[in-house]
Every structure is written in structure tokens, then in C-alpha cells.
Sequence to fold (262 residues):
Amino acid sequence: MKQIQFGNSLEDSVFINFGIKLNGRTYDLMEKFKKNVMRGYDATYYANLAANEKREYYRMVAGDALKRLDFDPKYDKLLLDIGAGPGVLTVEVAKLIGESEIIGIDASDDMVDIAKQYAAKENVRNVNFVKCPAEEAAKIFKQNSCIIISRNTFHRIKDGRETLKQLYIVTAERNKPSLYIRDMNRNMSWQLILEESVSWSEKSKFDRLVENPAFYAPEELNKIMENSGIDNYKILDGRFTENAYGTDTNLLENEWVLLVNK
Fold:
């Protein structure tokens, strides 16, 4: 099978192979690209996916993030979830941080509305959601005030270098990591993703992944960090620090985690 290469933007995304046949199913990549990427997010579909099929995954991400950040509820009072989407990760974090508060920000009105409804449904009160693009976080949050988490958002940001600089402004000064970003690795095994996708019900993992216009390999992320002027960071393997998440263990090996100290 030929490699599938994603570019750094919608304009330069390149699909080397236009059709892949697997277990009797044909995946027309260009058709998926036109149908899913060009139409933008279906907020309701994404919310249902996250809250149902991926909920346990987000629980594990929440625990992993707080462990790697060495979260302490006595001192760490405010967290931000960047690109919160339907709020599932934000709510799962909120359940673990006691009386501390987490604010999820997202550029989509629909996502913010859905996230608020989801938090109410889960009866979680130490969470709020605000419409705000990631690159504008420094405009509405105080300097050195927040611990930041983010999952599967960074590759969607147009200017990763500038956004990291803005997030760094609001990141709290601690003697340990204050920023946790998790995302997919461009160098992931696409054959693995395709093999796993056939087990999904309504749509496949591959369908979802094709909606993503770009991912970064660790070496690309390292260059972005160097250009941002932020030097106290680590890029780590995405596998969880404790336990494994069911059948997605292999998928997690194709994620990276960025930790930034300030």
C-alpha cells in the first residue's frame, strides 16, 4: 500500500493514493476529503462520537495529562482546555481536579453550546466554556495564570509557532510542566489505522482521520518550538503513563505529547 501524505494546510494536502481497498471496503480518499474536510466539522456527530465511542479514551487522556503536569489542587486553581470541542475531555478533567476550575475554549459557537449542554448533563459545575480561538487566548486570560491542556487541536491551528507563543504568555510559572499538548504523529502507521477502522460502527476511524488536514511529526514540532523561542520543553511518546486504553493501545503509539515548563 502506498503511503498517505498530509500537507501542512488544506491547500497543500496531497493524497498519493486515491483509493484503498481493505477487507472488501473501498476508501476513496479524495471523496472523503471533499465530503468531510471541505464541509468543516459536523459538531453534533463529533460530540456523539466523543461522548460515546471515545469517552473512555478521554478519561485516560485526562488522567495522563494531570499526572504528567503533576497537578496539585492546593496550588493549581485554573486550567484551560484549548480546542475543547464538545467538552468531553474538559469535563473529564473537571471531575479530577476538585474545587479547581477548568475553562474550555473553542473557535466554534456550535461546539461551545454543545459543550455547555454536555457539562450540564454530567452535572459538573467547576467547568465553563468560552468561544475563543487558541491564538487569542492571551487576550482574555491573565499572564502566568493557567495550566494548559490540549488534545487533537494543534494540527488545525494555522500558525503553530505564534499560537504557542501566545499560550506561553498565559501559562503559569511552575517548577514543573504547565502546558500539555497531545496530537497525532504524521509518521503514524496508516495501515494500522485502516485495519482498526473496520471495527467502528457508523463511520471509521479512518473517516475521522481523513478529516484532519495536517499532522506534525516530532521533528517538525521540534522545529516549531525552536522558532517560537521556547526552549524548556519535551516531546514524548503518546502512550499513557499508566495502564493501556483497550484496543487503542497501538493508536496511542502514533500520538506525541508536548510538555512545556515555564
User: Anything to note?
Assistant: Residues 56 and 245 are 8 Å apart (CA to CA). The longest strand covers residues 177-184. The first helix runs from residue 29 to 37.
